[in-house]
Amino acid sequence: MIYVITGKNDFLRTESLKQKISDFSKKHGELSIEKISSDKADYKSIISAISSLPFLVDRKMIILEEPGQIKEFAEAIDEVFGLVSDNIDVLIYEPRIDKRSSYYKSLKKIKNFTEYSELRPNEISRWAEQYVKQNNGKISSANAFKIVDRVGSNQMLIKNEIDKLLLYGQEISTDTIEGMTDQIPRSTIFQLLDNSLRGNKRAVIEIYEQQKKLKVEAMQIMSLLIWQLHILAIIKTSQSTSTNEIVSLTGLSPFSVENGLKLLRQINFAQLSSIIDRTLELDIKMKTVAINPDESLMVLLLTIN
Questions:
Q1: Which CATH class name applies to 186-302?
Q2: Residues 54-93: pLDDT tens digits?
Q3: Residue 211 has pLDDT above 90, yes or no
Q4: For residues 12 and 115, is the Cβ–Cβ distance under 8 A?
Q5: Category of 215 on φ-ψ map: left (φ > 0), alpha (ψ -120 to 50) or beta
Q6: Check whether domain 2-115 has CATH 3.40.190.10, yes or no
Q7: Would you call 1 helix, strand, or coil by DSSP?
């Protein structure tokens, strides 16, 4: 049996790998799991491992971590499938694959191919709500959104924050969220986007450089920018200019709505759609193509208006 786990969603991909290892080891024992990392192996050692009979166990799972980094393996992947021993399960774990490559196309033909895509911002808040309930906790939809609004869209970070809140009490309230979670620098992203829309290039450069000095990575800035644009889209489609009404309709915080309304006074719906499309295109490139993320994100911010 051959499995493939891949995709940009670090949290779901990692959880899937853990579950596969747990299920297999429970059935066949701890000695049934073997991990082979591409930086410590070559093509011949991988072929030897997957084609040999298991030792001391009735069945074995060999986890190949990023084997596509080994050129010979990637080029011979179709032949590799036929070399797997009957008593061996192979799990190919590839966090990132170039979807244009023949290697990716070959892997995708496998029946047990699973690709975990990143969740959209509104999907993340729904997931947070479900995660709380799965762990016997209670949370409102508005407070699930509030957690994401405060800590960002990184699922692993959200999970850790929820776990911490559940240790404090089964019901996660607005007070516990505000008292026990740290607010990410969303106001800074608001200032960055505000100056970008105003065409204030000097301020954009200064704010961005400040963030780099604080060791904030480009991907984190992109994540926050996407979340801010998501909020703008929600506010714009609500077809209201009343803060209280929008808060009631969407569950957004008054602070987020007021800031969003300020930004939306500078652009129309067509301009917002164009900015979202450009940001999405860059986000995909930053995760799939070898580009300088800081330079590319800076170009976007300096030309967004």
A1: mainly alpha
A2: 888 999 999 999 999 999 999 999 999 999 998 999 999 9
A3: no
A4: no
A5: left
A6: no
A7: coil
